[in-house]
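Example 4.3 (complexes with small molecules)
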Amino acid sequence: MDTICLCDGYEDGRYVLPPLPYDIAALEPLLDAETVLLHHSRHHAAYVAGANAAAEMMRQVALGELPETMAAQAAHNLAFNLAGHMLHTLYWGNISPEKGQQPCGELADAINTSFGSYDGFVRLFRSVAQGVQGSGWAVLAKDAVSHRLVVLGTHRHQDALLPRMRPLLVCDVWEHAYYLRYHNNRAGYVEAFLNQICWHSVSKRFNGNKNHVCCR
Ligand code: MN3
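Answer. The structure with manganese (III) ion bound is encoded below.
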């Protein structure tokens, strides 16, 4: 397995934690092994567990086993945790042990059309990632209608799920993603992230069919 996609986060009717497609120490110098271990096996795993718990709560409300007053909380929990699970699955799949990859082919053309140049994309993505207040994500997304690319900055997780915007590349800027190594230097983390993007995976997502976010 050379990458992971959203399909790997769901199995037999439940959300599951997809295994990483590389060793936890393989993402140096972007990420140290301890950060990867904690981020994947604790933080990401917690969103998987939370998504399953919220889905079960919603099922019980629907069956009358829990009071209707719990429905709104269950829906909120599902949105937060499932978006967290989705974004982390995309994140592990769009970073790479390989340094210095560049987008190519149709994706490179779309980047040039949407941002003027690759440098223009980098300038925008870097600024959005650094500017997210508190916990959130920088997201390169494809507008499913116009096919233009956009960069989104989100708070927490679920704000990323804008209708018609399909995430292609995501950068976690919650402090747990970088604090052990970079402390408060988010800019240093974002710079290192930009040098270890798996553009191969991003291209697969860009070229995937309209209704399915999948990198295969
Ligand atoms: Mn995270």
